[in-house]
Specification:
two-stranded antiparallel ribbon, NADH Oxidase, alpha+beta, 8 helices, 6 strands, about 15% strand, about 35% helix, Nitroreductase/BluB, four-stranded antiparallel beta sheet
Length: about 230
């Protein structure tokens, strides 16, 4: 984050140095890959409680993500209060109703059909935790002066990925929800206007009857998402 006292570059010895063999690297990345292969998005949550310490540590992990100029332009609001969750659900469903009644357009609605989404969002009530992610358009110093943040969407996106991975490693399931627009979250969560809400993540244990849409299991093959040493580069 920007220093309040100095802008001097001060290099320090690399902490927590890793020096793995090639074999250990292969084993480590394969173990992580195999663990993340078991991650699935669900809409059917159990009401089984999740300790706050688990949520807190997952968010602390998200805070370790790299960011533009190390400004860390994010804020996470963790909500377990039933009344607050009900307010968020009611406001989100109002926006979803407008979305499905024509605001989205036919192509977008058609793209969502295999996923099985709709106006009703019971997971926002049932999941024991909602985490609302905010991106900070600019920073504010203690003296109320502003400073510019850099690569805000990219930085916040990386932190969100860290968070989802951490929640999965805790044995939890989550659902990313992006009602459009979502300005209502700023007021409900009591956040300042320079923070833009970008996502709600419902977090908890999967219900015994949880399902996943078949379409969600279709992942692009590696050949479609990887290019090595492109010609003409």
């Amino acid at each position: 984050m920007p220093s309040e006292t100095s802008t001097t570059y001060n290099p320090l010895p690399l902490p927590d140095r890793q020096d793995m063999s090639d074999d250990d690297s292969r084993a480590g990345v394969r173990a992580f890959h195999d663990r993340m292969r078991t991650r699935h998005t669900v809409r059917d949550f159990s009401d089984r409680p999740v300790p706050f310490e688990v949520i807190e540590t997952a968010i602390a992990t998200a805070g370790l993500a790299p960011s533009g100029a190390n400004h860390q332009p994010w804020h996470f609001v963790a909500i377990s209060d039933p009344a607050l969750k009900a307010r968020i659900r009611a406001a989100a469903e109002d926006e979803e109703r407008a979305f499905y009644d024509g605001g989205a357009g036919d192509e977008w609605i058609s793209a969502l059909e295999p996923i099985g989404t709709g106006v009703s969002k019971p997971h926002l009530d049932i999941a024991p935790w909602l985490i609302v992610i905010f991106a900070q358009r600019y920073g504010v110093r203690p003296d109320s002066t502003r400073f510019k943040n850099y690569y805000v969407p990219e930085s916040t996106g990386i932190a969100s990925g860290f968070l989802i991975a951490a929640l999965h490693h805790a044995g939890l399931y989550c659902l990313t929800h992006t009602p459009n627009p979502m300005k209502f979250l700023t007021a409900i969560c009591g956040r300042p206007d320079h923070e833009k809400p970008i996502m709600i993540i419902a977090v908890g244990h999967a219900a015994e009857t949880a399902t996943v849409p078949a379409a969600a299991l279709a992942k692009k093959p590696l050949s479609d998402i990887l290019t090595v040493n492109p010609e003409g580069a």
